[in-house]
Write a structure and sequence with these properties.
Elements lengths: L4 E3 L4 H6 L5 E6 L4 H17 L4 E6 L4 H6 L7 E6 L2 E7 L4 H12 L3
Parallel strand pairs: 1-3, 2-3
Antiparallel strand pairs: 2-4, 4-5
Length: 110
């Protein structure tokens, strides 16, 4: 059972922009090989971070307007949101440790 939430144009505002906790958004697509490789890593992060960070997935083919709004030009792209604002991003597959190192300052992780 994954701790990730699927978001789309209907619930992005409430789940991401209005979230009281930091949110990691995984922008991906069904057809994307690197996205499929990243999926278990993102699921692990969701489990590791528990309730301190919300982890959500967004399919760019189902929500293209959000992808365009945040200038997602390639997938997978991970963006950290805090207080409704995009704080940092990574594009392309990265190992779990690199993701944690990149985002830890925004997420108050040890």
């Amino acid at each position: 059972m994954s701790n990730t939430i699927e978001v789309n144009e209907t619930n992005f505002q409430s789940e991401v922009l209005e979230s009281e906790t930091p949110v990691l958004v995984d922008f991906g697509a069904e057809w994307c090989g690197p996205c499929k490789m990243l999926d278990p890593v993102v699921d692990e992060l969701a489990e590791d971070w528990g309730s301190s960070v919300k982890v959500v997935k967004l399919d760019i083919d189902h929500s293209p307007d959000i992808a365009m709004q945040y200038h997602v030009m390639g997938v997978p792209t991970l963006i950290v949101f805090k207080d409704g604002e995009a704080q940092d991003r990574l594009t392309g597959y990265r190992p779990k440790q690199k993701i944690v190192e990149q985002f830890s300052t925004h997420l108050q992780l040890a």
